[in-house]
Amino acid sequence: MNWNQKRLVVTGGSGFLGSAVVQKLRARGYKKITIPRSSNYDLRDQEAIVRFYKDAEPQIVIHLAAVVGGIGANRANPARFFYDNAIMGIQMMEYARQFGVEKFVVLGTVCAYPKFASVPFKEEELWNGYPEETNAPYGLAKKMMLVQAQAYRLQYGFNAIYLLPVNLYGPRDNFDLESSHVIPALIRKCVEAKENNDEKIVLWGDGSPTREFLYVEDAAEGIVLATERYNGSEPVNLGTGEEISILSLAQMIAAEVGYSGSIIWDTTKPNGQPRRGLDVTRAKALFGFEAEYRLREGISKTVEWFLANRGDMLEAAV
To answer: Is 30 an active-site residue?
Structure first.
């Protein structure tokens, strides 16, 4: 199959992960890539989705558009995070089927795993419990797309694949402290504390939870490889297979930034899921994906990008 002649749609293609995926696709020679803009196509709206499919006539859809955030954003917006993500995904896949799309790539989330899943998380354990409460609405909304993909494959022969990335980070991430995930939030807090000569920074929880992090360029490579090589019904993890505690992560970022103040833990705030770490053997076996970037290298690149671009980000936020 001459993949780079296919008409592709990448929802969320101008965002953090989506822009990295589009960059990877273009580097491989893909030229027919369409990115739906929210100002023209509200992907929560049925009529807008139908109009978009008529306009773009895609053969492959990579659905990355999502409403996401850290623990605070999830706690503040559980209904919005559930509805927007569920309605976008369900309708995008349904009308992809109706319009004869050849392949539909779904990006799920590590938040779909049970709160107390054994580590490393294996894809077979995805249904063995309820997700961690603070991000369950988001996780379950994304998890329904796995149900939909498998049901559509069974009844319609529709080729939809489902990928489960771990927590992402890297250049062009969201550094807004109200909605960001842990790595960009820590980078910004440490940079500003250093510049202000603050004696301490205060972080949520007690630092004991563990997380696994995937550099955005690695995530994009995994998505493109799966798009080209994987056509199965089973979900597939995308990660590094390496865990780190939030305490150790905070210390690593502080050292990278050069912040030498104290780290104080606010134990009145939630920790989130106790542990997160993926079994990544399936991705390597099925489509040859292995993460390239180690965490320290990725954090160094992310700090460098933030320091070079934060002026533009602050201006854009005004």
So the answer is: no
